[in-house]
Design goal:
This protein has 442 residues and is an alpha+beta fold. The chain folds into three domains: 8-181; 216-323; 345-442, Arc Repressor Mutant, subunit A, CATH 1.10.10.60. It contains 17 helices and seven strands. It has helices at residues 17-31, 53-60, 62-82, 139-146, 153-171, 226-234, 238-252, 266-279, 281-295, 304-322, 333-342, 350-357, 361-372, 376-394, 399-405, 412-422, 426-441, and strands at 8-9, 34-39, 86-89, 95-103, 106-118, 150-151, 180-181. Strands 2, 3, 4, 5 and 6 form a five-stranded mixed sheet that branches. Strand 5 (106-118), helix 4 (139-146) and strand 6 (150-151) form a beta-alpha-beta unit. The longest helix has 21 residues, at 62-82. The radius of gyration is 26 Å and the shape is elongated. InterPro entries: Homeodomain-like_sf (IPR009057), HTH_AraC (IPR018060), PocR_dom (IPR018771), Tscrpt_reg_AraC-type_HTH (IPR020449). Residues 330-432 form the HTH araC/xylS-type domain. This is HTH araC/xylS-type domain-containing protein. Pfam families: HTH_18, PocR. Keywords: DNA-binding, Transcription, Transcription regulation.
Length: 442
């Protein structure tokens, strides 16, 4: 496979499936839990063991089967991100746990078990997919649901530990036949093919008996704060996430003259996919496709500006995927600021911004200053100048072209505005940055 291909190892070719099935059956019989091993897309690797009649019914229905596969894939992928088993509610409201199977930095699949209810804490768990079909809507399903076993959450944690240990013992004796599959629009963009000497497959354990290798390498100190990204996503705070991205890239490229291989952004791309995946399996798939599409044939090392543009577009696409589309009556100053953060040239005039909110220009100007502490013109100008500084430092674009792209009209207004705010003309600023880079390199 070429360097730009996306592929993954097929779990079915890495393990003794017959032996894994035997261990899975024995574990299910001992614990009374339903158990199955799945690949990275949620498709079964083993036959189901001790499944409840309700889950058998749901998986026999083509519509709900896809939801079951989605929960299995989502849970496994989240386990690989968190580096430990994940307990969650499935789309039908039953409690499962998922233990990811990883090799190197590749998520290969998971062992999913449960199909129970909890005596406590049931409704504190996140539900991976919306409950499109609930047992209470059908008398037959309601009867099957009433037969679901109720257990204590501690028992579930002990079971997760036990299945992880058993799986580790089984997977460490794997076959060395490496079959390749294409991931396609799967739940997480996986790196290029692993080699046979990458070490044992590992299943993360709750009690740390085996050190997990998470999807995003723990050895990389500079990591995107995915919790904060998720928090800003729910708050519809694009600016907050762009600040997080800027800090991340500053750490990744501490010297402005530095370039990095495109693969160095994979951990960030995987983190954004993981955030999307937590919001729903369909978002994970769409974000995976977005990453693959934007990477395309990109091969060359990237400088700070190129990294910024690439990552910004992915981050904004994440917001566009998750954020609701607002009717005019629901738009606010905050939502308009979000649009400016996405593109500082979208609302250059007070009149266009006021029209977006369907309020008068005077009312808008007062509200905007109360919200941001700045006038509309000062805020938008500052955002455009920040982008101009990045372009002057890291590209060879002509100054007039930068002025045109950032909608400074007439074009000589760009030079006057730039010098007013930074004390240098754009040309002087570019020369200063180049001199600083040469000094740092020397």
């Amino acid at each position: 496979m070429g360097d730009g291909d996306y592929g993954a190892l097929d779990l079915r070719h890495l393990v003794d499936v017959e032996r894994l099935q035997q261990i899975q059956d024995e574990f299910a019989a001992d614990t009374g839990l339903g158990v199955i091993t799945v690949d990275s897309t949620g498709a079964p690797v083993t036959d189901p063991s001790h499944f409840t009649e309700l889950c058998q019914f749901l998986r026999n229905n083509p519509a709900t089967r896809e939801l079951c596969y989605g929960c299995d894939a989502h849970g496994g992928f989240q386990s690989s991100i968190e580096g430990k088993p994940v307990v969650y509610q499935c789309h039908a409201g039953l409690v499962d746990f998922s233990v990811s199977i990883i090799m190197g930095n590749q998520f290969l699949g998971a062992v999913a078990a449960g199909q129970v209810l909890l005596t406590r804490g049931q409704y504190d768990l996140r539900q991976l997919l919306a409950a499109h079909s609930t047992p209470s809507t059908d008398p037959g399903l309601q009867q099957l649901a009433s037969e679901i076993r109720t257990i204590d959450v501690d028992e579930l944690h002990r079971a997760a530990n036990a299945i992880a240990q058993l799986a580790n013992e089984t997977l460490s004796k794997r076959s060395h036949t490496f079959g390749l599959v294409t991931t396609g629009p799967s739940l997480g963009r996986l790196p290029v093919v692993a080699q046979a000497d990458q070490g044992p497959l590992l299943v993360p354990l709750v009690d740390g008996l085996s050190k997990p290798i998470p999807l995003i390498p723990a050895s990389r100190r500079n990591q995107l704060d995915v919790v904060a990204v998720g928090r800003n996503l729910h708050a519809q705070n694009v600016g907050g996430n762009l600040e997080l991205l800027g800090s991340y890239l500053d750490g990744l490229l501490p010297q402005w003259s530095q370039k990095i291989p495109r693969d160095d952004l994979r951990s960030l791309e995987d983190a954004l996919i993981a955030v999307a995946q937590r919001e729903g399996a369909q978002y994970g798939r769409e974000m995976t496709l977005a990453v693959a599409s934007r990477n395309g044939n990109r091969r060359a090392a990237m400088n700070r500006y190129e990294c910024q543009i690439h990552c910004e577009r992915l981050l904004i696409q994440l917001h566009d995927l998750i954020e609701p589309k607002l009717a005019v009556k629901d738009r606010t100053i905050a939502s308009l600021v979000n649009e400016i953060e996405k593109d500082p040239t979208v609302f250059l005039s007070v009149s266009s911004a006021a029209q977006y909110l369907a309020i008068s220009e005077s009312h808008y100007s007062r509200q905007f200053k109360q919200h941001t502490g700045q006038s509309h013109t000062a805020y938008v100008t500052a955002k455009r100048l920040e982008r101009a500084k990045l372009m002057l430092t890291h590209t060879d674009k002509p100054i007039m072209r930068i002025a045109t792209e950032l909608e400074f009209q007439p074009r000589n207004y760009f030079s006057r505005t730039f010098k007013k705010h930074l004390g240098l003309t754009p040309g002087e600023y570019r020369q200063q940055q180049r001199a600083e880079r040469l000094a740092a390199a020397g």
